[in-house]
UniProtKB/TrEMBL annotation:
GO biological process, one term: carbohydrate metabolic process
Keywords assigned by UniProt, alphabetized: Hydrolase
Full protein name: Sialate O-acetylesterase
InterPro entries per record: SASA, SGNH_hydro_sf, SIAE
The keyword NAD is annotated on this UniProt entry: no
GO molecular function, one term: sialate O-acetylesterase activity
């Protein structure tokens, strides 16, 4: 009888659920420094869970909820490590080799997702010397879902030639510069999906909030390589990690939103504000303007770029320009990403970490003055003036009342540019690099390309048709 009772007790104990953690919480991870981080998972309802972090001398306990979930919060110290975390319930989970530092999400579509294995030449050149124990990489599994999920696949790894080979090249170069400059551990989360539309990274309810964004969500082009239903990547990939504390987001996306470019600025604002809301963190958001590529369209790409620039009006955002970082205008994936990552890192170093970085902002059109048959253009973020890397200055067009743009001549006068064209006696508007695949040669004296722009707001023929 005693033997049978002991066997029954043993079976009951074995049947108890084990403490389980999501993959984002694992050995080799980086936790955000000097903040409150969440540790969470699943266990038996009413099971007592204790959590002990090696950087503090206390035990935190919690009881599992009725839905088998649990969560506690820990205060992290200044950057350092390695540390460990022990989680005990019916079983014990020990997380080791944990670093405390700065954690960034790297998100978007294929130009963010592109890796050394996928053809990025400067990332491939990094592989032999890639080992850096102070950089940790989390490569998230791709998942689309109809409803918000609480888990997503992926794994943390120390940066080396194996883990870097299939990790975002832009994200890696961004993180490498941060780590080298700040001297703290860096954690990078590669949350990207080639061909993805911004609409899919937002909650569906927000996409449907405004007529323009609703039209974008309903007219997404169907492709075999990425979902085209609003909200599904937010549900499958964003929602599961919103309890994981981060420093900020870098974003490279937009090619797949050319189907309805006028909505892009509003979608960006919704994305930034909604992600900040669910993370409960007003984190910085730095993006990459689309690189030149021969799409064969009219003004769709130019309007995406224009909307990307407009989105810089959102607080704590920034945008880098890549018109000079393309080796082949017939390849939508420029194969060099180091300078892209470095320019993003410069924004973060200057704006987020208050480092003295000069320059990091591209010159941006501010205003114009019409004088006879010429227009003079004024710019911000060109403290030492402008320069043309070759002659003549390219990519300027000018138009009068007929709204017909003609190729223009241009002349730099220190901080301003004077533009004119034969046959345009009374000019009204100027456009610069306002097309799919521009090849501009106008830069700040510090070497950053001028942001493409137009001075007019004339219709481009891309307004939506029908009612939504």
């Amino acid at each position: 009888m005693k033997t049978a009772l002991l066997l029954w007790i043993g079976l009951i104990a074995a049947a108890k659920a084990k403490v389980v953690l999501p993959p984002i919480l694992a050995s080799d991870m980086v936790l955000q420094q000097q903040t409150e981080v969440a540790i969470w998972g699943w266990a038996d309802p009413t099971e007592k869970i204790t959590v002990t972090a090696s950087w503090e001398n206390r035990v935190v306990s919690v009881t599992g909820a009725a839905d088998a979930t649990w969560k506690i919060r820990l205060r992290t110290p200044k950057s350092g490590g390695p540390y460990s975390i022990a989680i005990k319930g019916n079983n014990t989970v020990l997380l080791t080799n944990i670093l405390i530092g700065e954690v960034w999400v790297c998100s978007g579509q294929s130009n963010m997702a592109l890796t050394a294995a996928g053809g990025v030449k400067d990332a491939r050149a990094e592989l032999p010397t890639a080992y850096n124990p102070n950089i940790r990489l989390f490569r998230m599994g791709r998942r689309a879902a109809a409803t918000p999920q609480d888990n997503v696949g992926g794994n943390w790894a120390v940066c080396d030639s194996v883990s870097l080979k299939r990790f975002s090249a832009v994200g890696y170069f961004f993180g490498k510069k941060l780590q080298t400059t700040l001297g703290v551990p860096i954690g990078l989360i590669d949350m990207s999906w080639g061909g993805s539309k911004m609409d899919t990274w937002l909650p569906e309810s927000l996409v449907n909030l405004y007529p323009e964004t609703r039209h974008s969500g309903r007219t997404m082009v169907k492709t075999p390589w990425a979902p085209n239903i609003p909200g599904v990547l937010y549900n499958g990939m964003v929602a599961p990690i919103t309890s994981f504390a981060i420093a900020g987001v870098i974003w490279y996306q937009g090619e797949s939103n050319r189907h309805y470019a006028p909505a892009y600025a509003q979608l960006t604002r919704l994305l930034v504000e909604s992600w900040r809301s669910v993370w409960q963190n007003d984190f910085p958001f730095y993006s990459v303007q689309l690189a030149p590529y021969r799409y064969g369209g009219t003004f769709e790409t130019a309007l995406i770029r224009e909307n990307q620039a407009k989105a810089m009006a959102i607080p704590k955002t920034g945008m880098i320009v890549t018109t000079d970082l393309v080796d082949n205008l017939d390849d939508i994936h420029p194969v060099y990403k180091k300078e892209v990552g470095n320019r993003l890192a410069n924004w973060a170093l200057a704006e987020t970490y208050q480092q003295r970085i000069d320059p990091y902002k591209s010159p941006q059109y501010r205003s114009m003055l019409i004088a006879g048959n010429r227009i003079r253009l004024m710019f911000d973020h060109a403290p030492n003036g402008l320069m043309a890397k070759t002659e003549p200055i390219t990519e300027f067009e000018i138009a009068g009342a007929d709204r017909v743009f003609r190729k223009a001549q241009a002349r730099i006068d220190q901080h301003t540019v004077e533009v004119w064209a034969d046959g345009v006696e009374k000019p009204l508007a100027v456009r610069f690099a306002f097309r799919d695949a521009p090849e501009p040669n106008l830069f700040s004296q510090e070497g950053l390309p001028v942001i493409p722009f137009r001075t007019d707001n004339w219709a481009l023929g891309l307004d939506r048709q029908g009612n939504d």
